[in-house]
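ESCALATION

Customer reports they have been waiting on this structure for their group meeting. Please prioritize. Original submission:
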Amino acid sequence: MTLSSLFRDSVTGLWSRPKAEAAAEPPPDPLDSVDVAADVRRLIRDRRYCRVMHPNDGIAFDDVSLYHAWQAVYREMSLVPAGEVTLETDLAVANQQGFEFESATYDSIPVASIYMDRTPVTNADYARFVNAGGYGNPVLWPEEVLPIVLQFVDRTKKPGPRDWADGKPPTGAEHHPVVGICWYEANAYGIWAGKRLPTSAEWQRAGTWANGRGAQGREARYPWGNAFDPSRANIWAARHGGTSPVERFPDGATPNGIRHLIGNVWEWVDAQFTLPGDGDIRLVTEQPLAEIRGGAFDTYFESQATCQFRTGQPLLHRANNLGFRCCVSSDPLPPEPPPPTTPEAEPTEVTS
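Update from on-call: job pushed to the front of the queue and completed.
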């Protein structure tokens, strides 16, 4: 028996639950009125439209399905054009007391064009992943992590984020960013959705590309410019006291509609976080760290909630101020088909 099959059997046994009572009828889905296959409607409704772009079996979907998947991309993601960013970090430099940190700037890094989620992944989004059995699907997790996926549970020991209960998010928080998930959980969701976590450079490019560079060649500190404004972002200065729905703070969005890059929740990115040292200095952490970006509702220092600030957390860290968003590279996407044609109505014969 393989580790994957053993994992699947264990999860099925531990997390099986009685069937819930039938839910009320959902409102009509606009996709039901067009000629789109049921499985495509399900993928788009679950925000997995990128799975239509890149199907698992490699067999392309029909043009009608691709067209509607592209419309979902336009509604829920924004194109971030290719360009360059300058990644900044602190450098450990030797002094008489041992070492101190100094700001260091690295060379510009090229970034290819991507489509970025306009908002962080919400509790409602993540609930679809949980309900679809994402925690019990070994394909979504690295094999070395499978033995500990059973530990990724909520307050009631059901699979899900740390502060959920009975496999469900807090009532009324469906449109808040999901938090209490580790780096591996964020990655598993991305694979399930047909997307991925952005790299550090991609995340920074999303927040800075539209404002260009200032007189000193530096990128803007915030998506709206260089001056912090508490009305534009949910950090400590906004006195909000917790996460906010992803529709809030519209004035803090990028010009192409990406919200909450600054504030609300820190965001996992696909980058290992290290602190480089000068000369013979070598900094070693007890656990490998992944990079996080953007600040959160409880970030006190404005200097830590900028497009350039970088820090990290252990890969298994599950905090109430840490979430994520996804992206997809634009180059491999199939071209958008033309809008499907609607059959002309038969002429009605008029008799006198």
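Sent to customer with the following note: Residues 5-24 have pLDDT under 50 and may be disordered.
Escalation resolved.
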